[in-house]
Amino acid sequence: MSRIDQHLNRPVFYLSSFIILLLVLFALVTPEVADVFFTDLQKTIIDNGSWFYVVSVAVILTTILYVGFSRFGEVRLGPDHCKPEYSLPTWLSMLFAAGMGIGLMFFGVAEPVMHFLSPPTATSGTTEAVREAMKMTFFHWGLHAWAIYAIVGLVLAYFSFRLDLPLTLRSALYPIIGDRIYGWPGHIVDIFAVVSTIFGIATSLGLGAAQINSGLNYLFNFDESVTMQIYLMVGIIAIAIVSVATGLDKGIRRLSELNMILAIALLLFILILGPTVFILTAYVQNTGAYLSDIVRNTFNLFVYDKTDWIGGWTIFYWGWWLAWAPLLGCLLRVFLVVEQFASLSLVCWCCQRPLRCCG
């Protein structure tokens, strides 16, 4: 097995950094123009490309289900003798902390309320609006999101650990363009992945900062402003840097396990002290409603009931998950580190940390 270059990929780093810096400066220097530009761009994409998002995510979900339940589900993503380095609870903790985290805590409460007040088709504030709100929340945070993450993780894992190709998205094109993945075609794919990942993270970070700021304002009367949210984002980034710098075992793993413990504690607190029976029965019914309508909701573009709702919710989510997918696919692969020979040096494309065997 060949070694993968650990040095900085200069074309990808410099060009992606330039594009990100250009967009950030555009928003900072001319915020009004940038707001109009991005608003119009978003509207154009929703009006003309919604069908493409819906079909793409449907194909991804169908593919993942087929791979998982067919004979291909038995294919190991590493050498035949490999064993997972982490237990299932630890892996799930890291997966949820990195994959959903802020978004799930924010929208897990906010989204049903927003749909109840402004549902796509039902009358606001009615029992039907409650049913639709819960069903659509399950839909947006259910199988489709994880399918997008899973397919990128599978691609990265298979091509890097089975075929000894770089742990980057460019490797997925190897069956199509062969060794040209090492040239500019591959660089372009990785640049697109880096840029989309940065703005996917920015979305989550912005939502998280707004949520924390609102909570601090409610509890301690902190100033609720953009300046305070910037301070909070700086603090969150600093904690993330410390977590990454301390390594997967000491930093990311421990923080993820702590996050999962706190989330479970919050869940049990609400379940025990709240209307327990109602919560359990509603959960069962909402799950059934989600599964029974999953095909219709997957392909529902509200063609005959024109509404801006789908652009602000379903298409926004699919774009968000797709933007996150390059990073989460990589993290999925890191979390499932498989046993390799200790002398090898496989390097993750997003964090440049070596992936070693578990021994």
UniProtKB/TrEMBL annotation:
Endpoints of the signal sequence: none
Q: Which Pfam families match?
A: BCCT
Organism expressing this protein natively: Paraglaciecola aquimarina
Q: Give the stretches traversing the membrane.
A: 12-30, 50-69, 90-110, 138-161, 188-210, 230-248, 260-284, 315-336
Report the protein name in the record. Answer: BCCT family transporter
Q: Does the keyword Transport apply?
A: yes
- Quote the InterPro entries the UniProt record gives: BCCT_CS, BCCT_transptr
Keywords (A to Z) from UniProt:
Cell membrane, Membrane, Transmembrane, Transmembrane helix, Transport
Quote the PANTHER family the UniProt record gives.
HIGH-AFFINITY CHOLINE TRANSPORT PROTEIN, HIGH-AFFINITY CHOLINE TRANSPORT PROTEIN-RELATED
* Location in or out of the cell: Cell membrane
UniProt feature coiled coil, ranges: none
| Record membrane topology | Multi-pass membrane protein
Q: Which family does it belong to?
A: Belongs to the BCCT transporter (TC 2.A.15) family.
